[in-house]
Amino acid sequence: MLQSVRYSCSQGNLITNPIKRLFAMKRASKSKETSESSKKSKNDSQEVSSDPASASSFSKTTSTTSNSLYSTFQENRISCALDISQFQFKKKRVRILSNVKEVDDCRGPIVYWMSRDMRVQDNWAFLYAQLLALKLELPLVVVFCLVPKFLNATIRHYKFLLGGLEEVAAECENLKIPFQLLMGPAKDRVPQFVEKNGVAAVVCDFAPLRVPMQWVEDVKNNLADTVPLIQVDAHNVVPVWVASDKQEYGARTIRNKINTKLGEFLTEFPPVVEHKYKLKKNLDSVDWKKAYNSLECDMSVDAVPGVNPGYKAACAQLENFCRRIRLFGEKRNDPTVNALSGLSPWFHFGQISVQRCVLAVREYKGKHKESVEAFCEEAIVRRELADNFCYFNKNYDNLKGLHEWAAKTLNDHRKDKRTPCYSLEEFETCHTHDDLWNSAQIQLAKEGKMHGFLRMYWAKKILEWSESPEKALEIAILLNDKYSLDGRDPNGYVGCMWSIGGIHDQGWAERPIFGKIRYMNYQGCKRKFDVKAFVARYGGKVYNKK
Ligand SMILES: Cc1cc2nc3c(=O)[nH]c(=O)nc-3n(C[C@H](O)[C@H](O)[C@H](O)COP(=O)(O)OP(=O)(O)OC[C@H]3O[C@@H](n4cnc5c(N)ncnc54)[C@H](O)[C@@H]3O)c2cc1C
User: Fold this and answer.
1) 66-392, which class in CATH?
2) Where is the composition biased (Basic and acidic residues) (predicted)?
């Protein structure tokens, strides 16, 4: 008997009006949060202190303690539906990549091949895998393929990744869902695992970047003809293939396409629950030490002290942000104020769902409308615009990906004199003549993240002080990917392409080197924030090139 994969996307048995129950729940938690936030408003004033030491957006509470959102979220999930079979799964989140569309009558497990979205809860790919397994009465297994090196990832990134996965593995164990860390490339390891364990179907998540897209393609080609490969966009609120069918010009062209679909997609999540169909045989337990020993990445850039990986730490960071949320609207472009969410590392590694954070932040809409709207614009529209760009533009990280006007203007100014002109080493060791730029680079190297406003200034100055636009883009991407915890992300490639190549921007008044690409300068920064305070915090010096 063949069972259609599509069948399981269709409407399950809805419990009686889960939406109503969710709203009742939300109202209760809202009034609780409102009174908590007014209690805390006194403490909040410390966040705008002129003390630049408060500039870091990572909370000191990114430990796993004091985490009430963690339990609130679980209550919300249970109020939404008891499990995924009682929830109406949005078919549009799912696409079947393999030619075979149906699950063969084998008794092996359903596999969730986790890659970009490294979390258990609030993960549409995990939920879909459990839905399939429940419908077909099959066991469920999660696998993750660990490659020894990946782009410019360093041990800083791998520790964050593996730390998060250890939490995933523990949560899977509690839910009686085996978790396997497969060492090596997915193209070999996933098909081998599938064959060895008689796997019925593979569900994977979605990333628009070249390397993970190729992994999916290779797995599809190497799987047996009878095993369906199903992809779920678990990273975006509106799946990338639903938001738009082409490369969008900018935020103004995609905003409406996304925002009009939020009513449909920005929903509560049901929980991933203890799985009732057990795998007959025991799988090997994960050898974490062996996993660390297998790494061949750059070991020179170590973890950032106090910035902990994993879902629980992400919830603590979100909770800390919610206490400061009123600052986001007005102060998010001031690098001396702790106004940003600081969530991007956990978003990048998929350790917390952006959709979950947006649902939590929207609870403050009544009191801090401007901040909430600004956060939704960044976390949904701008972030999903970046996924759109990388998905539809194969040259997302090189100058071939630019619009014609931008490529032309950079070319017209190719021969303009660059004084000073720095090498990668001078940039990397913070040896420019600009103490603000050097301080921003120190922040990046030390804290694993640079303030969002400074990232633009930083990349534009690399264009101004590099021998060519190509070299500038290469240096910006390399430093961003090497030091930033959220690096190697669509947002990063788009951020560099925006700064250096005018992607998602417009032409501005023409000037040397930049041509019509938007320019930023030190004086402009001084008008926006207390540059001296920022420099004093990070200690960037002035180095005059001989
Ligand atoms: C040169 C350059 C490099 C960048 N590199 C990265 C990177 O490697 N990884 C990364 O996630 N972001 C990158 N950005 C985008 C942005 O600066 C960061 O997302 C933001 O600073 C992350 O900090 P936060 O989580 O505190 O952001 P918040 O301001 O609190 O925003 C919340 C979330 O919204 C999203 N977001 C915010 N700003 C943008 C933006 N401009 N474009 C797309 N999404 C956005 C992010 O997911 C972010 O976590 C880069 C921008 C530039 C100009």
Assistant:
1) alpha beta
2) 30-45
